[in-house]
Amino acid sequence: MTFIKETLFEIKFVFKHDNQFLKGEIIDFWKANKDSYLDELRSYYHFKAIDDADEWAFSSPTNSEVAAIARNNSNEIIGIAFVDLKEIDKSLSLGTHAYFQKVFVLSNYRSPKLTWRLFTCFVKGFSDAKSSRDFRAKSLVSENINPKMKNPYLRRCFSKLGYKMMGKNNFDGEIWYLPLKTSYKLHKLNQA
Description:
Layout: E1 3-5, E2 9-13, H1 20-44, E3 65-72, E4 77-87, E5 97-105, H2 112-128, E6 137-144, H3 152-160, E7 164-168, E8 174-179
Parallel strand pairs: 5-6
Antiparallel strand pairs: 1-2, 2-3, 3-4, 4-5, 6-8, 7-8
């Protein structure tokens, strides 16, 4: 399990953890912060009509699978990395399915250090979680839409984590993908 503890925050990989208390906390987090999350997304797409945006870009994050969380010293959730499994176009040569990921940190806690630590904890944990992921997904896709993150330094950081840039979408977002190793186990059927 991937876990990072700092003086000001704690980050934990939680993908596929069956914890009812955590699920309740995540529901409460999105009740309180979904509108600010969607407003932030809209601000990045400001130059294009929202109707033209990828349906997932503005879908409710409450339907996504949480993969990693950041907490403050009061044990409140202050950041979330989450994924959605989507069927993709085979012409992309990335298989039939991919996980699409996003990271959101509350604005009053946002810092490069916290955001990067949350992201790297998520990537390491998700890469290692072969048996928990859907075996059909051969890639983890990230759309970098934040203008502040479109710079040579962060591109090198993405590359060091194993991401490869695919190009840009219609909204000037950089599309990156991380090849995923998968595992599939056949289970013996009990025959009487």
